[in-house]
Design brief:
This protein is an alpha/beta fold. It is built from 16 helices and 23 strands.
């Protein structure tokens, strides 16, 4: 795909790609396309509300076929030398880069994400594959743990066929974030993409085929979470489930997988604080706070949806946030100038809108936005809710939209108390020029990740994940392999230790 010069031509190309998949999006199982006999639902374009196509649930029989294909392919893929897996996964990365603009255009079309961010997200997908490809040759490496009478050494082995269930907000990049380490570890994959934005997953299927991944190594099935997702989670031949999504769904998946003692890895919801002390670089803090809530249409798990500002600078800082929120360019996601696009679905827009009434009923003040935008599509104005306190629903519940809740705090202890007083613990952001305070507060925050004087900047070797209701496990670096692999200890005796004798 050559660079498109206008939003209209970008959208036209994305529509061409999607329509090329057919009126109904089927599955990809064992290296071949498969039509589905399951129930169908419409996929809507967030920016227009128009129907893009239909997606069918995988029936139980279709899901069984996908899992069987992954199970058949597993022994050979697991036995493939790591250097060979590295080569194949680098080929996937090359093809992702070659089709990055196509991927970005499709993400703008069915996820409603903005071009300015999606072009980078597609490239990040390639980076995910490259990083884990390079780790594949050493994935099985373990440790030497000698004792006086034995040499103990560990090795890791891929766990088996795994299920990967990914969300609708940045679907392609997050799919690669889960699928790349699974394949690098030697696992085979059955992927269920989000039902509201499934089309970029089909591009990844095409890329995997072109890269000549063996049949059955990577399979894709469509459908709703409560049907296809549940069948995948409950299947006895699926050894682990990697899931990105909301906390309630994670709870359901854990329950569904309990009968088969399914290993689970969850990246779930967040109500992430950005804490601004009065000694911070306020201009940089302002930029970061705005970026981390209003980019990606506020639909990301690591969004800084709670703004905690020290009381001495609260009024001035909140006023600046409100002015910037009102100035954000909302519109066509294909336009590079657009900063905020539509929400994913009318149901989700209505959920976000419902919190405006909650905010007013709780006594908070809507300082910017607070309403849907009239016209086609699922647009919602970038919103700032000011003068809240930590006990309010708008400060406790994940809204998952372009909605920021501002809360004043008095001192360090007060900031920590407010930040931790939620059920979530995914990410936190801290702004201060006091290094001692930065260390004290970051140590006290109940979050899996803390960024100090920064927005969310990912470094692939580092662990990514949350605590409390925000998740189980860590992605990134060797932590990903810990999930997709089993560790085995082997004890080799020196032959010198005394063995107890019985029956003599």
């Amino acid at each position: 795909m050559t660079t498109q010069t206008t939003p209209a031509t970008r959208r036209a190309r994305a529509l061409e790609i999607v329509r090329g998949f057919g009126a109904e999006l089927g599955h990809h199982i064992g290296g071949a396309a498969m039509e589905s006999a399951g129930d169908a639902h419409d996929v809507l374009e967030p920016a227009t509300g128009e129907t893009l196509g239909r997606v069918r649930d995988a029936t139980r029989e279709e899901l069984d076929k996908a899992v069987a294909a992954a199970k058949r392919a597993f022994p050979a893929w697991a036995a493939l030398p790591g250097e060979r897996r590295k080569e194949l996964l680098h080929r996937v990365a090359d093809l992702i880069e070659a089709r990055a603009e196509e991927i970005a255009a499709v993400e703008c079309l069915d996820a409603g994400q903005c071009w300015r961010f999606m072009a980078k997200a597609a490239v990040r997908g390639a980076e995910n594959f490259r990083f884990f490809a390079d780790q594949a040759p050493a994935a099985r490496d373990g440790k030497a743990l000698p004792s006086p009478e034995h040499l103990n050494f560990t090795t890791r082995q891929p766990i088996g066929p795994v299920g990967v269930i990914t969300p609708w907000n940045t679907p392609f990049m997050l799919s690669t974030w889960k699928i790349a380490p699974a394949l690098a570890a030697g696992c085979t994959v059955v992927h269920k993409p989000a039902e509201w934005s499934p089309y970029s997953a089909r591009l990844l299927v095409e890329i995997a085929n072109e890269a000549e991944l063996p049949a059955g190594v990577f399979n894709s099935v469509n459908g709703l979470g409560e049907t296809t997702g549940r069948r995948l989670t409950e299947h006895p031949d699926i050894k682990a489930i990697a899931f990105v999504g909301d906390t309630s769904t994670g709870t359901a998946i854990m329950r569904q997988g309990a009968e088969t003692l399914k290993r689970v890895h969850f990246e779930l919801g967040g109500k992430n604080p950005v804490i601004v002390f009065d000694d911070a670089d306020l201009e940089r803090a302002l930029d970061a706070a705005i970026f981390m809530i209003y980019s990606l249409n506020g639909q990301r798990c690591t969004s800084s949806s709670r703004l905690l500002v020290q009381r001495s600078i609260y009024d001035r800082f909140v006023e600046q946030v409100a002015a910037r929120a009102k100035a954000l360019k909302v519109g066509d996601p294909f336009d590079p100038a657009t900063e905020v696009g539509p929400l994913i679905h009318p149901h989700h827009r209505d959920k976000v809108r419902s919190y405006m009434g909650v905010a007013e009923a709780e006594g908070a003040r809507i300082a910017a936005g607070g309403a849907a935008i009239d016209g086609p599509g699922h647009f919602f104005r970038p919103t700032l809710i000011a003068d809240a306190h930590g006990a309010m629903r708008i400060a406790q519940e994940e809204i998952f939209g372009p909605v920021l809740t501002a809360i004043p705090f008095d001192d360090e202890a007060d900031a920590i108390r407010i930040a931790n007083d939620v059920r979530y613990g995914l990410a936190a952001y801290l702004w201060t020029s006091d290094i001692g305070r930065a260390l004290r507060v970051s140590n006290a925050l109940e979050a899996g990740m803390v960024w100090i004087n920064s927005e969310n900047v990912r470094h692939l070797p580092t662990p990514f994940g949350g605590v409390k209701a925000s998740g189980i496990g860590r992605d990134g670096g060797d932590w990903s392999f810990d999930f997709y692999m089993e560790t085995k200890n082997v004890a080799l005796a020196h032959g010198s230790h005394k063995i107890s004798r019985m029956g003599v």
